[in-house]
Amino acid sequence: MIAVLADDFSGAAELAGIAAMRGFGAEVQTVFDPASTAEVIAVDCDSRGLSEELAAERVTAIAKAVAASAPEWIYKKTDSVLRGNVRMEIEAILGATGLRKCLFIPANPSKGRVIRGGEYFINGVPLDQTVFASDPDHPRRTSVVRELLGMSNRIECPDVVSVDEVRGFAMQMNPLWLAAGGADFFDQRIGGRDLAAMPGVVERTLLVCGSHAAWESGRAAQMEAQGFVVKVLPVAFFDAVPTSDWVAEMRQILLTQNRLMLAIGSPETPRSTEVMTTAVVAAAAAVAKGVRGLRLAMEGGATAIALMRHCGWTRFEVQRAGLTGVGVLRVIGGEAPVLWVKPGSYPWPDGVFVADPCVEKGAKLRN
């Protein structure tokens, strides 16, 4: 078994999706279950929003449990732009497992994210000049990786500007070292072979966007161009349960138009991320209730885990969908929609909802 420890749900789903497309049986868990027969288990530690001390404590406990199950190797999935408690969590895993050092490659050159001269760039723009500079919880106010990471003589974070360089580092991995970072490094580390996607059938898509980065990068326009009706959650519902009339209106849009996006948006008087995420998830769950043939697409790890908790889901089988950066999940042990989960900081793959591996029956597309 190969174990992935992620700090949020979307990261766990993303890497489990890569493993599935590489031919591995993969599962996402919110509570580690070593009894699983999956070849790759991606555990959401849900630690990004915790304090350093609490994050280290939680990750240490999970890493010890994982190490006791004798995995072939462990991968620490971090946010690609180092949001969260990256250094503390890596050091917690090193301490819990006895691994000596960490090779840390958060850069994802396949998506235009590189480290050059010790600085982080997204499509040639320094990190602190991108949308991440205004992240509500982890603003990136520098592009210098060492300033973002903090000092540690046990973590090596090299410059990486191409996928070929990532591949070279993956081939040089020392078995006594911990591999950590983003999707590109994991993809090269796990190997395997590319398999064909397994198509599914859905009738409707409800997209839930709780990601500040996604909204600020123009997600509404992107999804409208792909046939979605985009609705922003009314501010009044941050403090109250959505009205039955509003839920009925949204459900009618979903049933007749087949594609609906619910988003937090950019409220003039924003509440805490937790309050707004909880509200949009509760609203989405109310709209989705009883709708058959539904795909529930989520972007942002906080959005995804909030929905999983709301619904009481803890284990997920990963489907081979062939979607870069998107985990396609089915709930184990219960009836539920098909789940699509993606980090909020990346766009949906081009045309993913038009040339769709999950064929939408009777969808009314507006191009």
SSE topology sketch:
Elements lengths: L1 E5 L2 H13 L4 E4 L10 E5 L7 H17 L4 E5 L8 H12 L3 E5 L7 E4 L2 E4 L2 E2 L18 H5 L5 E2 L6 H9 L5 E5 L1 H8 L9 E3 L1 E6 L2 H5 L2 H7 L3 E4 L11 H14 L1 E5 L9 H16 L5 E6 L1 H11 L3 E5 L7 E5 L6 E5 L15 E3 L7
Parallel strand pairs: 1-3, 1-4, 2-3, 4-10, 5-9, 5-10, 11-19, 12-14, 12-15, 13-14, 15-18
Antiparallel strand pairs: 2-16, 6-7, 7-8, 16-17, 17-18
Helix pairs in contact: 1-6, 2-3, 5-6, 9-10, 10-11
Extract low-pLDDT stretches: 355-367
What general form does the structure show?
globular
Strand order of the largest sheet: 9-5-10-4-1-3-2-16-17-18-15-12-14-13
Helix content: 25-40%
Taken together, the total number of domains comes to 2
What's a concise summary of this model?
The protein has 367 residues and is α/β, with parallel strands linked by helices.
Keywords summarizing the entry:
single chain; 367 residues; alpha/beta; Rossmann fold; Molybdenum Cofactor Biosythetic Enzyme, Chain A; 2 domains; 14-stranded mixed sheet; three-stranded antiparallel sheet; 11 helices; 19 strands; 32% helix; disordered C terminus
Explained architecture:
The chain has about 375 residues and is α/β, with parallel strands linked by helices. The chain folds into two domains: about 1-190, Rossmann fold (3-Layer(aba) Sandwich); about 200-360, Molybdenum Cofactor Biosythetic Enzyme, Chain A (3-Layer(aba) Sandwich), CATH 3.40.980. The protein contains eleven helices and 19 strands. It has helices at about 10-20, 50-70, 85-95, 145-150, 165-170, 185-190, 210-215, 220-225, 245-255, 275-290, 300-310; strands at about 1-5, 25-30, 40-45, 75, 100-105, 115, 120, 125, 155, 175-180, 200, 205-210, 230, 260-265, 295-300, 315-320, 325-330, 340, 360. The strands form three sheets. It has a 14-stranded mixed β-sheet, with helices on both faces. A three-stranded antiparallel β-sheet has the order 6-7-8, with no helix packed on it. A two-stranded parallel sheet has the order 11-19. The protein is globular, with a radius of gyration of 20 Å. The N and C termini lie far apart (about 45 Å).
